[in-house]
Amino acid sequence: MRTLSIVGALVIVALGCIEAQSQNYRDPSIPRTKDGQPNLSAPAPRLNGKPDLSGVWQAERTPVNEFVRVLGPGLPAIQPDLNDITKHVLSVLWDVPGGEQLLRPEAAAIMQQRQKSGRDFPTAYCQPGSIPASMLILDFKMIQAPGEIVVLAGNGDPARQIYIDGRSLPKDPEPSWMGSSAGRWEGETLIVETTGFKDSAWLDGFGHPRSEAMRITERYRRRDFGHMDIEMTFDDAQNYTRPFGFKTTATLLPDTDVLEYICTENQRRYRPPTP
Predict the structure, then answer these.
(1) Residue 143 lies in a domain
(2) pLDDT tens digit string along 97-122?
(3) Segment 216-263, tens digit of pLDDT
(4) What is the mean pLDDT of residues 195-201?
(5) Which domain holds residue 122?
(6) Residue 211, exposed/middle/buried by CB under 10 A (0-12, 13-18, 19+)?
(7) Cis amide prior to 132 (ω within 30 degrees)
(8) Residue 111 main-chain phi, psi, to 5 deg
(9) What is the pTM of this model?
(10) Which among 1, 235, 258, 273 has most CB atoms closer than 10 A?
(11) What CATH number does residue 207 fall under?
(12) What SS3 state is found at 104?
């Protein structure tokens, strides 16, 4: 079954990253309870009057029974299973009622061709997963400075630079895997807009396409020290009849870090099929 081969490829990619997720270090900046445990309910830290989003984060994991409900019982047996990805890595339309009906005919044809070709999600071939996968596979680290936020992905994707110094998005960006990003604050929420993607990048494991003109809007709100609400909206009139999106929650992973991960050292078993 094609869906299950996509799931299997994503799980193996996550398995290859697993040893690069943790580093035992007691961070003195983390508030703690009397017994020394991180106090994730403490107030969110601030930088120059705004919430500081810095930290290592992990998006809320999807229960395995939810995968089974949608994909069927024949899920891959190789698990730390689906605990290293979320449902939106497989499909950004997972929670959108009638989501597949949003695809324009040309977009539906692209997705069907990708599924028939035998290719898997680009991460299986050591290409970047891009957004949103880089935020939803394993973990990610945000480093906030006064003029920009750098995002390091645990799955080995290129770093993102989100400029929060007042600049606008470039009018004619050079297409790239991670796009060009600019952010602004609205109260306690950081709003990030990103465009200028390579159109060869898949939007998810099912092969939903994106055009170079796709605009992804992210909203980040750090509720307290250990929890952050994330909302992503996708707007691509070339491929979809209207914008759509999803919401998730990220949890801080204290006393850890995102370590270097080189895909080719772990994924040699995956090669694109011969034309």
Answers:
(1) yes
(2) 999 999 999 999 999 999 887 677 78
(3) 999 999 999 999 999 999 999 999 999 999 999 999 999 999 988 777
(4) 93
(5) 46-61+85-257
(6) middle
(7) yes
(8) -65, -45
(9) 0.88
(10) 258
(11) 2.40.128.20
(12) coil
